[in-house]
Amino acid sequence: MTKMNNLKVWAAGGLLLTAGIIAACSSEDEVRGGQSGFQVRLTDAPGDYEAVWIDVEDVLIKRDADTAGEGGWESLPGVQRGVYNLLELVDGRDTMLVDAVIPSGTIHQLRLVLGEDNWITVNGEDIALTTPSAQQSGLKLKINADVNPGIVYGLVLDFDVAKSIVKAGNSGKYILKPVIRTFLDAQGGNLAGDVWPDTVQTAVLAIADGDTVSTYTSEDGGFLFRSLNPGSYQLRFLPDTLSGFLPYDTAGVIVEEGKLTDIGTITFTE
Fold first, then answer.
1. Which is higher by pLDDT, 98 or 270?
2. Does the CA dihedral 49-87-125-164 come out positive or negative?
3. Which of 17, 118, 172, 179 is within CB 3.0–4.6 Å of 129 for a Cys-Cys bond?
4. Does the pLDDT at position 189 exceed 70?
């Protein structure tokens, strides 16, 4: 989900409903049509430094295990390039490096490419980190996992600072040799469907345990909620008030972890 805001919708009869969160999933047609959501987050196992700044330049994946050498690598779209202080990403905190839609299938490897602007702070002094030439093309990480259509996957890169920074004897220099663990999991479940007539833009609310997640139908009437918490949802469909159609409610829609629930087509009546 790429954007979260408050949403207010006028329903028929003048009832004002406030949805706590709007899930703006602009790529619902792609995700439903043989595509998967793929997020990459960076977090840290801490080390004994005041700050550790890492310059992220790119994140790439390789799908074909048989492609030799440097072939087969592709940069993920929308990489959040920048310099990150790893020591701010502790105690369950992380930062999003990638939030993309990719073709479903197998991801064999991931490559994290770092720039030259890496440094640590020790006793108030900023010290540049030296990167060995063998790692300047990027750190390769084995994934070997399938990503299925219609599901959002989250890959966590757990950067072990204590093992990744090596002091070079008494030279005062520090060498960066990244040690990273990876965790790939499906992020909740997805919920999809269609609304007819598709010419009527409709707000769709998914309600569970007092929380409301909302989105709008696309031009072809489809809608998709990504990464919902598993559970039973009530769905409320609110057509444009100028359409003359009445709101529609349904309950007992089950969302399961790592699965896509498709409720089919909802047809409005006057």
1. 98
2. positive
3. 118
4. yes
CA distances, 192 to each of 150, 224, 265 (Å): 9, 4, 10
Report the predicted TM-score, pTM, of the whole model to 2 decimal places: 0.68
221 phi-psi bin (left φ>0, alpha ψ -120 to 50, beta other): left
Q: Any idea which residue has 């197998």 for tokens?
A: 106
* Structure confidence at residue 31 (pLDDT): 54
Token pair for residue 98?
């990638």
SS3 assignment, position 255? strand
Asked if 186 and 260 touch (Cβ cutoff 8 Å), the reply is no
One CATH from 2.40.10, 3.40.50, 2.60.40, 3.30.230 for 35-186: 2.60.40
Contact 44, 114 (CB under 8 A): no
Higher-confidence residue of 124 and 226: namely 124
Residue carrying structure tokens 């990244």 = 178
